[in-house]
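User: I'm new to structure prediction. If I give you an amino acid sequence, what do you actually give back? Let's try with this one:
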Amino acid sequence: MSVLARLFKIGQAEANSVVDNLEDPIRMTEQGIRDLKRDLQAAIQSLGEIRALVISLDRQKSEAQGEAQSAEKKAMALLAGAEKGDIDKAQAEQLAMKMLDKKKTADASVARYTADYSTQKAMAEKLQAQVDGLEQQIKTFENELVTLKARSKTADSMKKINKQLAGVDPSGTLAMLERMKQKVNEDEATAQAYGEIAGRPSSTDEVDKLLASSSTSAPSEDLLALKKKMGLIQ
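Assistant: Good question. You get back a string of structure tokens that encode the predicted 3D arrangement of the chain. For your 234 residues, that looks like this:
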């Protein structure tokens, strides 16, 4: 018997496609296990009834065997009594024949009960094997359900993570990172340029320095006039 066919009551050829379309495999599996347990209870009840019938048939067979043996013993006793002269021979033989008829009827009952007993006992053994198999199957499904729940939980978490990752644009993210990298490079270059400029004297400083130098080295007009008056220069 197919596991899936037993759980979901479908043909083996359709089992895989149906399972693929299940919205809640955990709940369906739990329902399948409950169905199996109901089947198990029904099978156990039937097994109990068959066992009771087997016991009854065995008892009836034993009773019929006892009746047959008793009838035969009585017939033998009647014939023995007639042989000794204790009982009228004709009457003894007549009663003995009735006992033999009773034995024949009892023997027929023994044969019938024996056949029915064998049939019902075989059915009980077969049903017992089915009950044992069903119990083992339920245990297996219950163990698989624990694993299935764990796998389902993991799959659900992975699905959520992958769904979140699927919403992220990798190319857009890479482009943004490249722009940020370029911006940092530009900021670093700008900072370096400002540093170099800060280390150099400004044009105003150079002019002031030159004027100061010219002012220091050139003679004043008073000095030139004095030198000209003294005839030191023309």
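You can read the tokens as a compact description of the fold. Here is one thing that stands out. The chain has two domains: 3-168, 173-229.
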